[in-house]
Amino acid sequence: MIKIRSIAVSVLKIPVDIRLSTGRVTFTSHLVVQIQAEDRVVGIGEGTPYLTEIYNVYALSKKIARSLQGRDVVKALEILPEMQERMISDVRFDYGPFLAYETALMDIVSKSARVPFSRLLGGTFRDSIPVCGTIFLWHPRIMAKIAKKWVFENKVNHLKVKVSGVIERDAANVQCIRDAIGYDVLLRIDANQAYKSVKKAVECIKKLEKFEIGIIEQPIKWHDIDGLRKLRKLVTPKIMVDESLRKPSDIDLIAEKEAADIINFHPSKLGCLTVTRKAIERTIDLGLEYMIGSGPLTGVGAASLLHLAASIKRLFYPNEEVGLHEEFNRDIILNPLKVQESCIPLPKEYGLGVALEEKRLREYKMYLYPLKMSLIDFAYLTYGKFPPFMREQMKNIHGVVMTKF
Question: Is 350 among the domain residues?
């Protein structure tokens, strides 16, 4: 029996330059958890916010820490998914912290028991994970240059291209990319809900089909499941949903409505890796394809997704997340993950197989002020007590207030 000795939680803010249909992103937020066991083995994990402020994620992570402090590591792993289900039903927070904590606990168990991390999840079916390249919105020539790097240097055969929803701009961008790389690479366009209606989506997608688009990701609003079903019957590319998946039960609804061909799983949305893996298995059972995606992650989070992919017998598509180092030359680990011949090798060491670089951790760390901490505590007192119809309003108000400090 190995008990948890201490828990440290860090919130990071890392500079990036990402351009989407929804606007420009100049930094990404990350939650990194370090758990030290009594045998002095340290486990690390990462979770990111999704549809909420990083402060809410931090608040939930502190509450989880109080619940886990002093517990046996294996017992903590057993109760974490149950704790996730119970806590999320009470308050409007993200699942991201549960991903960070479960990853850190599994990191400890893997190192202590000398068992591969992926085997703890369900098995090791591959030692190298295929990945895809992502191209954000830029000038067409810049997008084409990035595409050439992914295809000719990193040898990837699947590209995700962000689109704006403005057909003239998107057609110019995609044509420039196809002219640069040819037609042997699968192109997936990600609209991030940019098309305001099914009619508009059909019009735009039809004009892009000549560029042999294989997949269109989240073309319309996440909640318009009937619209997705209708759209799927009107266009040639496969329909992938991302934002439409917010909880495991959404999988059954998407399948029942025949709203998509593929589900993109962002583990931070579903929390524990074990929960995400179970949801992926359910997706396969229902006859749908899946992809392991993510928002931008450090090498800690990206490594956990490599192990997740290694633990599943059948991969339909390459992993989406390659880590911040590959795309922005920034990271917090000593041994950055690198794409080699379209794949990232699964780390060979026990545990996640990555180690924190404390200097970088300090460089990107955000320090939360006492006033913010008081507001975080207030969030806990309010979210669970307000009637359901008022909770979303309270969440929005809290998010606005938090950004003012």
Answer: no
- Res. 352: pLDDT tops 60: yes
Global pTM value: 0.90
Residue with tokens 């517990």: 71
**Residue 392 covered by a domain:** yes
Task: Name 7's bridge partners.
Answer: 35
- Select from 107, 108, 105 the least CA-distant residue to 352: 107
The residue to which tokens 């039809």 are assigned: 206
Structure tokens at 333: 């680990």
Mean pLDDT of 93-98: 82
* DSSP string over 144-177: HHHHHIIIIIS--SEEEEE--S-HHHHHHHHHHH
- Distance of alpha carbon 20 from alpha carbon 29, whole angstroms: 17
- 48 and 112 part of one domain: yes
Both 161 and 235 in one domain: the answer is yes
Total domains present in the chain: 2
The position carrying tokens 């904590």 is 101
Structural domain of 61: 4-117+358-402
Q: Considering only CA atoms, which of 174, 312, 297, 193 is closest in space to residue 241? A: 193
